[in-house]
C-alpha cells in the first residue's frame, strides 16, 4: 500500500528520485510503473502489478464498446518507466506536461492505497484548500474508520 506525501526534485530530463518507502514497494512488484493522466492537473502512477489488476477489472466489467473507449482514451495514453539503478524514475514527456513545473522543478508525490499521484506543489495546495470544506463535513465518518 502506498501512503504519504513526498516533495521530490525533478531534474532537467524529467526524472525524480523515488522516496525509499515507495521505491521498496515498487521494486518488490517489479521495477516498472505505469503513468497516466489523472484528475485535475495530476498524473496517476501504478505499479505493474496494480496496473494489471486494473486491466483485468476492465475486461471483467466493461462491455465491448466501453472496453474500446477504455483502450482508446486510457490505455493508449499510458506510459511506462523503470526505476534506474540510482533510484530515479522518468516521467514520460507527454505526461510531464500535465503537471506544470514551477521554477524550483519540484513535484509532490502522494501515496493513495494502490496507486500514487504526482502534483505540482502549488496545484496540490490549491486542491487541498478546495477540499477542506468537504473534509470537515466528512471528518466524523473518517474518524470512525480509525
TrEMBL record:
SUPFAM superfamilies xref list: AbrB/MazE/MraZ-like
A GO term for molecular function: transcription cis-regulatory region binding
Any Gene Ontology CC annotation: nucleoid
Residue stretches making up the SpoVT-AbrB domain: 5-50, 78-123
Protein keywords: Cytoplasm, DNA-binding, Repeat, Transcription, Transcription regulation
Subcellular location: Cytoplasm, Nucleoid
A biological process from GO: negative regulation of DNA-templated transcription initiation
Domain of life: Bacteria
TM annotation in the entry: none
Hydrolase found in the keyword field: no
InterPro entries given in the database record: MraZ, MraZ_C, MraZ_dom, MraZ_N, MraZ_sf, SpoVT-AbrB_dom, SpoVT-AbrB_sf
Oligomeric and partner information: Forms oligomers.
Family: Belongs to the MraZ family.
Protein name stated in the entry: Transcriptional regulator MraZ
Lineage per the UniProt record: Bacteria, Pseudomonadati, Nitrospirota, Nitrospiria, Nitrospirales
The encoding gene: mraZ
Amino acid at each position: 500500500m502506498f501512503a504519504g506525501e513526498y516533495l521530490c526534485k525533478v531534474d532537467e530530463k524529467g526524472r525524480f528520485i523515488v522516496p525509499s518507502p515507495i521505491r521498496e514497494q515498487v521494486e518488490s512488484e517489479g521495477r516498472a510503473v505505469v503513468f497516466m493522466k489523472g484528475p485535475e492537473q495530476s498524473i496517476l502512477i501504478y505499479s505493474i502489478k496494480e496496473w494489471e489488476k486494473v486491466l483485468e477489472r476492465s475486461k471483467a466489467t466493461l462491455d465491448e464498446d466501453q472496453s474500446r473507449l477504455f483502450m482508446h482514451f486510457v490505455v493508449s495514453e499510458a506510459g511506462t518507466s523503470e526505476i534506474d539503478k540510482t533510484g530515479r524514475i522518468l516521467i514520460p514527456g507527454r505526461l510531464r506536461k500535465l503537471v506544470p513545473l514551477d521554477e524550483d522543478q519540484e513535484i509532490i508525490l502522494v501515496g493513495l492505497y494502490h496507486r500514487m499521484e504526482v502534483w505540482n506543489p502549488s496545484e496540490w495546495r490549491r486542491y487541498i484548500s478546495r477540499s477542506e470544506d468537504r473534509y470537515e463535513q466528512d471528518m466524523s465518518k473518517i474518524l470512525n474508520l480509525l
